[in-house]
Write a structure and sequence with these properties.
Elements: H1 3-15, H2 23-30, H3 34-46, E1 51-54, E2 57-60, E3 66-73, H4 79-88, E4 92-100, E5 104-112, H5 115-126, E6 140-147, H6 150-163
Antiparallel strand pairs: 1-2, 3-6, 4-5, 4-6
């Protein structure tokens, strides 16, 4: 694996982790020494990535540069697809809200920024303990999505449109 590819993989791995990632774990995953990981992180920092070293490992600090609200509609079974589509395109799903005709706006914070978060949400909903918020409005719902820039949000909007999930406002 080329050094640049490894650095991109390191960014992805740290960015998708819910916890700090120790250099030893990265060294083992990429079959290099701990020192190579330390050097890779230094190069990533020099290239503008905000990687913090904590006593428990590395953390990628992502700054939200752009926000957009998308109105969507899909079935219960498409929740994971929608979430992975947004995250795979570089977005983070901050919340979900619906506009109920009687109760008004009902919202919930989601903070979905990796595949694991999306799958955990779906597992909790499929367990039957709770119903998805969109179920009170026949599948219609809104998501606030954040990304590094407007171009990423434009791409997400187009992907949602192609899948038939986006409701034009």
């Amino acid at each position: 694996m080329k050094a640049t590819d490894r650095r991109n993989e390191i960014l992805s791995f740290i960015g998708n982790s819910d916890n700090p990632v120790p250099a030893g774990v990265l060294a083992e995953k990429f079959a290099v020494s701990r020192q190579v990981i330390v050097q890779d992180v230094a190069i990533l920092r020099a290239n503008g990535y905000d990687v913090t070293a904590t006593n428990r490992g590395y953390v990628l600090n992502v700054k939200i540069q752009a926000l957009r609200v998308f109105k969507c509609r899909h079935s219960f079974d498409e929740i994971v697809d929608e979430g992975l589509l947004v995250i795979g395109a570089g977005g983070r799903i901050e919340d979900i809200f619906v506009n109920h005709r009687v109760y008004g706006r009902i919202s919930a914070r989601l903070d979905l920024h990796n595949k694991t978060h999306v799958e955990e949400l779906y597992r909790s909903l499929v367990s039957g303990a709770s119903k998805p918020l969109m179920s009170v409005t026949d599948g219609y719902h809104y998501h606030t999505v954040s990304a590094d820039n407007e171009q990423v949000l434009d791409g997400i909007e187009e992907l949602l449109r192609q899948k038939g999930y986006l409701i034009e406002i």
